[in-house]
Amino acid sequence: MSTLLLLVLMIGCTVIANLMMKLGAGDPASAVLLGLISWRTFIGLVIFATAAAFYAFVLKVLPLNLAQAYAAAQFVAVICAAALLLGEPITFMRWVGISLISGGIMIVALSSETSL
């Protein structure tokens, strides 16, 4: 599997997991899950574990400093997904933050001798 595909899968799983955790935070705990967490929270945790597995595969092919820089794209993706799917606002200052994160990822990527 290509490194780029692994990164996309990892980031995608992280985004979905965050959305499920947010939705599950307002749900009552499920009797099926011993009354501890809601089913959405449980699904979010399972998807986070899947994202961690993809990240482990990414670490097999990329140096940690580069893998972590690319993984930072999840912060931008979660903010955008929350805006699109949950109606959370993206203020001007958040756009500034998104720009800084994106710029940082590009700087690290351009300075790397390792390609995706």
From TrEMBL:
Does the entry feature the keyword Transmembrane, yes or no?
A: yes
Q: Give membrane topology per the record.
A: Multi-pass membrane protein
- Locate the transmembrane regions by residue number: 42-62, 69-86, 92-110
Q: Which GO terms describe its cellular component?
A: plasma membrane
Q: Would I find Acetylation among this entry's keywords?
A: no
Tree of life domain: Bacteria
Q: Where in the cell is it found?
A: Cell membrane
The record, for SUPFAM superfamilies, names:
Multidrug resistance efflux transporter EmrE
| GO MF, one example | transmembrane transporter activity
Give the main location: membrane
Keywords, A to Z, come to: Cell membrane, Membrane, Transmembrane, Transmembrane helix
What sections of the sequence does the record tag as coiled-coil? Answer: none
InterPro entries the UniProt entry points to: EmrE-like, Small_drug/metabolite_transptr
Q: What is this protein called?
A: EamA domain-containing protein
The species is Microvirga brassicacearum
Q: What is the lineage of its organism?
A: Bacteria, Pseudomonadati, Pseudomonadota, Alphaproteobacteria, Hyphomicrobiales
